[in-house]
Amino acid sequence: MSALPQASSAAKPRAKSARSVRSLQKGQQTRAAILEAALGLASHMGLEGLSIGALADVTKMSKSGVFAHFGSREELQIAVVTEYHAKFEEEVFYTAIREARGLPRLKAMFGNWVRRVSVEVDSGCIYISGAVEFDDRPGPVRDALVGMVHAWHAALKKAIQLAQEVGHLRADADVEQILFELHGFILSLHHDARFMRRPGALERAGEGFHRTIRFYATEAGIKILGRD
Q: To 10 degrees, what angle do helices 201-216 and 103-119 make?
């Protein structure tokens, strides 16, 4: 007789636990769907264009439902920046580090970056648009943007330094100058392709990369560049 109540009480926590897991999974899925919609809005309207109300309209949810997942407009903006960075890393960085250290990896990183910007011509790069919106506005959103760009710059800088270590770039190559120029090519590409609608921007960005790297390359590096 005593075994039945014990089995019943043991089943209740398991059932409750299963419901909790399903509820958590549903909540995570809902949050992911909201965040995906927010990322799409921010790509076209900028981070400043994001609001709980606009997102509720797009997702067909109540404002209170969206608010329950993010709490504030600022928290939503930071979540979008973080999600954008995660997608950027996956597409641009993690595919590139499969390449050999040195110029093969650096070429892949820059090439992936250019391709991503070319795709974003009709939507917008949150790093670039965010910099315009928050360049003179201190606060958590600006800090998140700066932190993500710093992380990407650190990865690029490491790739440049590795190219030096393996002998593809000269030991006296100015790492900071190379980084500055590569970032400049991307900014120019975004401006020419998105704002000015000038043809040939992708090709000019690629040519800029080759000229900069060739200037600092060793003989081994020039062979990897694949140009005479």
A: 160
Gyration radius (Cα) of the chain, Å = 24
CB 80 within 8 A of CB 35: yes
Domain boundaries, the chain: 3-225
Q: For 213, what's the count of Cα atoms within 13 Å in the CB-facing half-sphere?
A: 31
SS3 32: helix
CATH topology for 3-225 is: Tetracycline Repressor; domain 2 (1.10.357)
Q: Are 133 and 77 in contact (CB under 8 A)?
A: no
Q: 154 has which bridge partners?
A: none
CB 161 within 8 A of CB 170: no
Angle between the 3-45 and 126-134 helix axes, to the nearest 10 degrees?
70
**pTM passes above 0.85:** no
Output the 3-class SS for 39-78.
Answer: HHHHHHHCHHHCCHHHHHHHHCCCHHHHHHHHCCHHHHHH
pLDDT tens digits along 97-128: 999 999 999 999 999 999 988 887 766 778 88
